[in-house]
Amino acid sequence: MSDPRDDVISVGALAAEGTHSAGDPPAGIRRVPSGVDGLTTEHLIINMGPQHPSTHGVLRLLIEVDGEEVLAAETSLGYLHRGIEKLAESRKYHQLGTLMDRGDYVSGMHGEQAAALATEKLLEVTVPDKARYIRTLVAELTRLASHLVWYGTFGLDTGAMGQFLYAVRDREVLLDILEEISGQRMMFNYIRPGGVVADLPVGIEKKILDFLTDFDVHLEEHHALLGGNEIFQMRVKGIGTISREMALAFALSGANLRATGVGFDVRRDRPYDAYPDLDFDVPVGSTGDAWDRYMVRMEEMRQSVRMVRQCIEGMPEGDFTAKVPKVIRPAEGEVYASVESSRGETGVHLVSDGSPEPYRYHYRGPSLFACQVLEEILPGHLLADVVMMIGSLDIMLGEADR
Amino acid sequence: MLPDATAVSHILTAAGVSNAVVATETLGVVCRLEAASVLRALEALRDGELDFRVLLDFLGADTGEEIEVTYHLRSLTRDEELFIKATVAYDGELRSVWNIYASALMPERETAELLGLSLVGHPNPKRLLTTDGVEPLLRKSVPIRTVEEVRNR
Amino acid sequence: MWGKGLINGLRITMRNMRRGPITLMYPYEKYDLPERARWSVVPVFDEHGDPKCTACMVCVRQCPDHILDLEITTAEDKSKHIEHFRYELGACMMCGLCVEACPFSAIRMSHDYELARTDVAALTYDLLTDTDAASARKNREPKPAGAAPPEGGEHSG
Amino acid sequence: MAIDRFTGEHSVAFIRSEQLFDYARSKSLWYMAFGIACCAIEGLMHASGPRFDFDRMGVFFRASPRQADVMIVAGTVNKKMAETVKLLYDQMPEPKWVVAMGACASTGGPFREYPNVVLGVDQVVPVDVYIPGCPPRPESVQYGFICLQDKITKRTEERLAARRDRS
Prior knowledge:
The structure holds 4 protein chains of 4 kinds. Chain A is an alpha+beta fold. Chain A has 15 helices and 8 strands. In chain A, strands 1-2-3 form a 3-stranded antiparallel β-sheet. In chain A, a hairpin with a 2-residue loop joins strand 2 and strand 3 (69-76). In chain A, helix 5 packs antiparallel against helix 12 (290-313) and helix 12 runs parallel beside helix 14. The two termini of chain A are 31 Å apart. In chain C, the strands form 2 sheets. Chain C has a 3-stranded antiparallel β-sheet. In chain C, strands 1-4 form a two-stranded antiparallel ribbon. In chain C, strand 2 (68-74) and strand 3 (80-88) form a beta hairpin. By secondary structure, chain D is α/β, with parallel strands linked by helices. Chain D is built from 6 helices and 5 strands; from the N terminus they run ααβαββαβαβα. Chain D has a 5-stranded parallel β-sheet. In chain D, strand 3 (70-74), helix 4 and strand 4 form a beta-alpha-beta unit. The two termini of chain D are 14 Å apart. Chain A binds chain B through residues 74-78, 81, 83, 85-87, 90, 121-122, 246, 248-251, 253, 262, 264, 269-270, 333-336, 345, 347, 349, 351, 359-360, 362, 364, 368-369, 371-372, 376, 401, and chain B through 1, 25-28, 53-57, 59, 61-62, 70, 72, 76, 79, 83, 101-103, 105-107, 124, 127-131, 137-138, 144.
């Protein structure tokens, strides 16, 4: 292994190439120690996780440090390996949602949507317009809920506490809405092949719009509270820079990919459900550091608010589900369907052999690919920045381990 | 979305990959090759004019007779997707493609472990998800727990 | 300017202070669960107080986790008697698939979320024990036709 | 002895030190957040959030097992994780309690058919309170802690009764 000091990232160079305008770190603050002359230090291996408050689940990192500088890191997964893929082979098609909910457990709707889309591709059914809109509506509400978790815990990693409480406060209202629509707060089991389980409850539109009116204000406050804080900016700017080439090589997706400047969004480029009818922007970053990922996710929340409004305005009349047999027996075949979940491209690779259960069910969790890139970006940073990088990648171990 | 099948086979022939079958299936454009030529084919596709720069996903499946591995490639410049399939025997070796696509690092470890293959040419061919002694769980011959077992735990 | 963000943050905190508390004092006040909320499975009884379950086993087959189990005995006249309708609360994920599948609405998802148990044995219990299935009662009902004895229903015992 | 009248079970003025300690313990259950999966969001994040406010009950988040009285195991425990659960449980000071939160920690839940999943955390460490639900509401967790408080107070009474019988 070559000396990791060779490719140490220096902040000065980044600030020069980056397009950040406001709040560059003050002069004299060096993020990366350039090594202490004349003193030999012994390398230390620090075990972080699997039970650690800021690894966002059960990620385990073995970090080799020299003083405070990270020399190498190894990611260890599998502490939440529950066999979603294996169990899906013994589940019927309409039961797949219960497993997918628990894959990426913070944005359950997207998992259900991916499973339903894959099954519909095999079945070749057309989903009614109303069902498409309801699905999009709940998926965007879930994205807001999921990004609020990321926002709250990302702040906790820096040591901030207040914004976490505000994020949870807003999320409570969202979860109440989602509970009223689907029946549970996190494991919705709402989206099924062919449509959704039940129509939207009466009067929910008003509740959602009331929430959005508040949330417009709250979101700007969230952004000002965390993103406007100089301490936070100093801690995230120039941290964990992922180049465009690295992002493509590691197959990153979602906000992590868009922060590097690649504007690929499944909602826009592989449109599904009601997204072709909606008007929304895909935010992209420029340098691909933690600050860009933060900004992209904040902008995504604004776009989600826009999309929820459009869904409510354009909600068509009609059935909420297509006619789908009770026991789904799709024809033999193999399909891939993907959705843009909160963390990236959640894909389902489904092989059917004509029986009521899938033959092979593969779940592409975007977090698995984000976990891989950690090994690459951690070396050269300080130990305290490790948690910032994990937080900024928004890793969900449920879908990495599956 | 769908790449031109003739262009794909043209690139593969130019790279010296013989008997590759390119066809359009329900999945998309699927290219079936021998396991030995996967590395060469992937390298040619990545650097070729179709520009498949991203290995979006990697998975293996137990077909009952052998293991079928699938490489899901995506080209962002041309907005196209391609699936490469190859088969490996049960006691066979899975050749790592990590130096062509870095995103294969962990999915390959996972596939090798859960389907009981040995991983060759990988920088860190350890188990990823399970502990030592756990059977290759994704194989069809390895059963899940029965209803009686889970009820009388 | 250095420090502008901090002052702005304090201003936001002050604004939030004026928004009033949202705390739910749980043991003393409870949140009104919405209509569709799904918690533990409970049986549904008809107006006579008899369970509506017909022991058709659809819910048992539908449950992805195999947490429901019906032990039935069938009499000569094909009527079913439910010995045990076992429910593993500890493994239930409250997905509602059994309730959706039930053709007679004989089970429903209750709103009871205070489910903590200190004893592991209490995680598995019977929803119904030693009762006739509804279909068995229906078969039998026309014969007595309003006479007093049918209430007893002790044919099995 | 005349002094027995004042130190007996029904005395108001004097309380056994054990009773006092257990009363104090039951009102300040500091938990170690063993958030593994989905339940961590509901039981640890939302329960300590502003709406449900676990701090009201004296239940407070600790990141280290050395400072904790209760371990909330929130999520699926698999064979790889089981060693860590045991390790962290052993590090907690006595007296200690374990709350199995959610279906997975109680019995293995939706994933119990998978051979890599441990059928409930009680196969690894002794569990005091099981909270069914997938995931349980934050109120369910709070109810579980009320059950645990009852259990702690009852434990003292039982122990004192046993000692009285012996003497």
